[in-house]
Design brief:
phosphoribosylaminoimidazolesuccinocarboxamide synthase activity; four-stranded antiparallel β-sheet; about 300 residues; D-amino Acid Aminotransferase, Chain A, domain 1; 2 domains; globular; EC 6.3.2.6; nucleotide-binding; SAICAR_synth
């Protein structure tokens, strides 16, 4: 059986909490490759820990969803085509061991900014709003409740910290300091454009895209290019629109299609000290089912 880090024709260079990166095997150490293989594993993380067991099939599900969204954003939804990092099919053979859960992509000069867009008030934003009436320092109207739609989507970037450190929310002005005024504006405007297009498409399929995050880089010609995963259950909050409209409690309104099931179980069964406990089979199976249900709702109606 082929190991994850031993793929014919590819050399493993990095493993994150969820994804593994490879460059062509002939690439000399230390050189920057113009193409890579991004492999999504079945690993699941929460509270900065990789948990056990993983979610069977998760890597393939997330890759399927990313690829579907990349296609929509290439103009299939009627909007302008957003450049992305995918290499055209047929330009290389993906190893069988990771077929279905890997993407052959172009190497980019990545920007150190996580581009977060929020259309609804929840999570850490709700906690901040309760304390100060703001989300990431952006003032919001009084009287909003957990799960409410915002008057308009807001852009709340974060600085992508070096590996092993926590990302940090930053102001738009700080993104200008990091990447320059032109790039900062392009990151903000493109992120908001993608969110609004994706939210409209999701709404047409009975879903609410509450918030999401994007990553971008520059290609060899300096063109802003969408990278990494996009609009997956790991990078976005999706809610059932009917449940949101009819629910009477935050839990009912925000029935999510992501790993919130895992977070909730872990929060109730672990004090965040030492090694996290193993996930029960029932939690793993429910999480997998929600990932699959999201893809079916988006792509099969």
């Amino acid at each position: 059986m082929t190991n994850e880090t031993d793929l014919p024709g590819w050399k493993h260079i990095y493993s994150g909490k969820v994804r593994d990166l490879y460059v062509p095997a002939e690439m000399p150490d230390g050189e920057v490759s113009n193409r890579m293989l991004v492999v999504a594993s079945d690993r699941v993380s929460a509270f900065d820990h990789v948990l056990s067991p993983g979610i069977a099939g998760k890597g393939e599900l997330l890759t399927t969803l990313s690829m579907w969204w990349f296609a929509q954003l290439a103009g299939l939804d009627g909007g302008r085509s957003i450049p992305n990092h995918l290499v055209a099919d047929g330009e290389t053979e993906i190893p069988h061991a990771v077929s279905g859960r890997s993407m052959h992509v172009r190497g980019l000069q990545m920007y150190p900014v996580e581009c977060v867009v929020r259309g609804y008030l929840t999570g850490s934003g709700w906690a901040e709003y309760q304390a100060s009436g703001t989300v990431c320092g952006i003032a919001l109207p009084d009287g909003l409740n957990d799960g409410d739609r915002l008057p308009e989507p807001i852009y709340t970037p974060a600085y992508k910290a070096p590996m092993g450190e926590h990302d940090e929310n930053i102001s738009y002005e700080q993104t200008v300091e990091l990447v320059g005024a032109d790039v900062a504006a392009a990151l903000r405007d493109t992120s908001l454009e993608i969110y609004e297009r994706a939210a409209a498409l999701a709404e047409a399929h009975g879903l609410i895209l509450a918030d999401t995050k994007f990553e971008f880089g520059a290609d060899a010609e300096g063109v802003l290019t969408l990278a990494d995963e996009v609009l997956t259950s790991d990078s976005s909050r999706y809610w059932d629109a009917a449940a949101w409209a009819s629910g009477t409690t935050p839990k009912e309104r925000m029935a999510s299609f992501d790993k919130q099931i895992v977070r909730d179980w872990l929060a109730a069964n672990w004090n965040k000290e030492g090694t996290p406990p193993e996930l029960p089979t029932e939690v793993v199976e429910r999480t997998s089912a929600r990932y699959r249900e999201l893809i079916e709702m988006l792509t099969e109606r």
